[in-house]
Amino acid sequence: MNDIVLLMLSLAGGMALGAFYFMSLWRNVKNVTGGAGMSLRFVLEYFIRTAVVLAGFYIIMSGRWERMAIALFGFIVMREIIKHIIKRQKEPA
Question: How many angstroms separate the CA atoms of 57 and 75, rounded?
């Protein structure tokens, strides 16, 4: 496949990983109630999120640092997009 196409797919994959990571993090933080076993659940979900994202980056990278860099850029872009979305949801109407 063309290198540009692979880099664009890497960007999209990084953005998808970012969306998964930060949306699941936001859902997890919103559901914190302080009940018994909550800290264990929070830690377990952290490890699951991190494992999924690391595996995704490894698959996207497939031995090429350029793909990894572009995927990481997409991940960071998605973080900023989600921060903006969450901030707009919290603003009063």
Answer: 10
